């Protein structure tokens, strides 16, 4: 009788990485639904397209790296990267912009750094930042008008054609500046009341965007409840953003109001689905709080004083840089120790 | 209500405890042979007191430790010592170790026992002696000798005595069933330990998934000050450090022991063993073992004689040999797999799981760490398991140590939750092993260096002393020469034997010239013994025969000394043998040369025998 020889523990709970990633995808679906309801088919088409490109490029690079393709594809992480890009890109972004973003995310940011678990930067945000800088026109003029405003809303076929045509700019009547963009560029010369009459704001918030953000918030809370992510990073991101807004942005005639910061743009998607990506985030609780708060502060800084209307991608990438440093200085105090061993070995031993 | 604290982390694995709590404790009976390892716990192995063929009685001491920390081993039943040798023992490596094999005679005949009616009349050390000679060891974990544990050093007063009835590992119910069925013995043993330690607080910690055990103990502790603390079920609440945190809010300092903060934990089974040792005079020869797992038809708890082979117990519990895929000794979180069913039950064996393949399936293949941090959430020691894993994998052991690798209790909570199915604990064990190895090697190197440095110092000191002696000898010789010269001058002034010497001086002059030539030739040799040359320098005013004789005798003495030294060195196997041998050979040459020179001089001086007689006294 030959018995199985294995090191303890012998019991395992079954929630493999593939399931974790599947839950992330499921939790993002309410947000995608809200996007589709308020801005048409663009995001859905982008999501499907990006996931397809993500899986294809992941498979290709795995093959080139002589790794088992099926084994790694099944971990669903490439699909999540594709999903996040599809959710973030403008609704009418031309197909090749999405493709460049996804391929650079999967091939360069993820696999060339060693694949899953070894990438220092959030792959989706690398792809996003790359196309944002490279194709500014395509990335700023292709945001859809809220569907409620459309006289003759573009159907699925129209949207698909617009994306597939590869034109830098889509049909003018279908697109509109995002609330954050509008506010940022108008407030310098207008009062808040004058700016907010623009239809993109709806009833004082950000038409459509508030529901999208609420849906991503709900999905994020689900992830926390399922213990797939901890509360630390999202709460710190939002906390940093709120704190900055309260400290500097109380004058609505000068800066976008807090409600706009929280409920427009990629705030909730960024806080719950992007910043919380564990691979490129800090690890300890304290580290996560610092990392998240840094992202929140940077989002506010770039939105208010930078050149870009939204700033999730840059903020996340900048804090990704800081992760090794944060991790060095924020290990938890171990049971039975007076204080944590901070910094490098050989220093500050307790 | 006892105030409770929480420890961070922890997991809630499926308990599977009902499998083995449905039946009362059964007595396993006497197997056809008992295998008793001589080392069942940390410390020194016991040495056999019996020989093959001896008949022993139940409870008879058959092995004991003569020095160091350890415990005696007793015969679990009466029978014949069948053999003493290496047999497989319960160990993760599946190794064999020295065991006494007993063939029971079936009579189960007791040796003389000395039960105590009132231990309080005895001195505490005497009671500790009884516990020691009964071979009582901690029956939960490492099997630390209980008598030593119950005697903490003077500066460590135990304020809180904790009886660990948490039994947080899934599947295991040995303590649970013991508390249910033998609560009075548990409490009796606890009282003995409390009497020895005199703590201010005495508390039994039980997880809330064992209400029957808690109820039984509540009844048994009626009218005493013993607290029953029912704690939330969470693995590893039964870990010593975690239970102390739960019940006292204090933490055992890293690298320390609970007694450092005035706490001591004892195991349920140990309490029963202490009670039996004191009140029945029975040594530790049996224990309760849980036999469980889906591959058993009638799982449950058994009262087992130590040394009973696992196979015998599996048969008793209705093993279905075709269904078992892995055999675990201990729990599913910290236990280890067995390679053979021939291993015996020892003092620390609490559970045997015969698991089917679907019950404890092989984990999926290891994937990349995604730094999700679930492990850190689960770690009851508040470590950073993923960082430890990175460093262990990269063999950056210094960094792993910096992140408190050695505080890891190997509970397995991190591996249990890892979504990438990484065998984290295995990585930590590897890193710990490597670091221990490095430390041992470092220690060895340090000792070698110390030995080398000590030798260098000794050699230097000896050289200095030698130089000192040489200087003193040279000084003495110079003084002697000066004195002689003065005497000679005095004699010359007195006019004695001047004529004779003057008459001889022509002959002597010639001999002297020859002698000088040969001495100079000798001095060209490497002068590792320069004093010989210095001393061999003939006094110009003296007749050379005298100097030559002196030189000859000195060289001879030196040779003898050197030879004696060589003998000594040979006897001691010193490492400078070849050097000494060379020195002896050199001295040999020197003696020969001196002898030749002397013979020559004598031949030349032959016509004046009185000169010889005159020189003879100078030796």
Q: Any overview of this molecule?
A:
The complex is a heterodimer of chains A (350) and B (619). Chain A has 350 residues and is mainly alpha-helical. Chain A has 16 helices and no strands. Among the domains of chain B are: 115-281, Rossmann fold, CATH 3.40.50; 375-438, no CATH class; 507-619, no CATH class. Chain B contains 19 helices and 17 strands. Chain B has helices at residues 18-21, 124-133, 146-149, 174-181, 183-197, 211-220, 240-248, 268-280, 310-316, 374-378, 385-393, 397-402, 413-417, 424-494, 498-524, 530-536, 544-572, 577-605, 609-615; strands spanning 26-27, 34-37, 47-48, 55-56, 61-64, 73-74, 79-88, 96-104, 160-165, 201-207, 227-231, 263-267, 286-292, 300-305, 324-329, 336-337, 351-356. In chain B, the strands form 4 sheets. Chain B has a 6-stranded mixed beta sheet, with helices on both faces. In chain B, strands 2-8-7-4 form a 4-stranded antiparallel beta sheet, with no helix packed on it. The termini of chain B are far apart. The interface between A and B is large, with 44 and 76 residues.
What does the secondary structure layout of this molecule look like, with pairings?
The complex is a heterodimer of chains A (350) and B (619).
Chain A (H helix, E strand, L loop, with lengths): L16 H23 L2 H23 L4 H5 L3 H12 L6 H16 L12 H12 L1 H5 L15 H10 L13 H8 L5 H4 L13 H17 L6 H17 L9 H6 L3 H8 L10 H21 L6 H18 L21
Helix pairs in contact in A: 1-4, 1-11, 2-4, 2-5, 4-5, 4-6, 5-6, 6-16, 11-14, 12-14, 12-15, 15-16
Chain B lengths: L17 H4 L4 E2 L6 E4 L9 E2 L6 E2 L4 E4 L8 E2 L4 E10 L7 E9 L19 H10 L12 H4 L10 E6 L8 H8 L1 H15 L3 E7 L3 H10 L6 E5 L8 H9 L14 E5 H13 L5 E7 L7 E6 L4 H7 L7 E6 L6 E2 L13 E6 L17 H5 L6 H9 L3 H6 L10 H5 L6 H71 L3 H27 L5 H7 L7 H29 L4 H29 L3 H7 L4
Parallel strand pairs in B: 1-14, 9-10, 9-12, 10-11, 13-17
Antiparallel strand pairs in B: 2-8, 3-5, 4-7, 5-6, 7-8, 13-14, 15-16, 15-17
Helix pairs in contact in B: 4-6, 5-6, 5-8, 11-14, 15-18, 17-18
